[in-house]
Amino acid sequence: MIEALPARVALTSEAADLLRRLRVVHGPLMFHQSGGCCDGSSPMCFPDGEFKIGGSDVHLGDLDVEGIEPVPFFMSESQFAYWRHTHLTVDVVKGRGSGFSVEAPEGVRFLIRSRLFSDAESAVLNGT
Amino acid sequence: MAKYATPGDPGSVITFKPRYDNFIGGEYVAPVKGQYFENPTPVTGQTFTEVARSTAADIDLALDAAHGAASAWGKTSVTERANILNKMADRIEANVELIAIAETWDNGKACRETLNADIPLAVDHLRYFAGAIRAQEGGISEIDQDTVAYHFHEPLGVVGQIIPWNFPILMAIWKLAPALAAGNCVVLKPAEQTPVSILVLMELVADLLPAGTLNIVNGFGVEAGKPLASSKRIRKIAFTGETTTGRLIMQYASENLIPVTLELGGKSPNVFFDDVAASPDAFFDKALEGFTMFAFNQGEVCTSPSRALIQGGIYNDFLAQCVKRTEQINQGDPLDTDTMMGAQASNDQLEKILSYIDIGKQEGAKVLTGGERADLPGALSGGYYMQPTIFEGNNSMRVFQEEIFGPVVSVAKFSDYDDGIKIANDTLYGLGAAVWSRDGNTAYRAGRDIQAGRVWVNNYHAYPAHAAFGGYKQSGIGRENHKMMLDHYQNTKNMLVSYSQNAQGFF
Question: What is the edge-to-edge ordering of all strands in the sheet holding B139-144?
Answer without folding.
Answer: B139-144, B147-155, B490-498
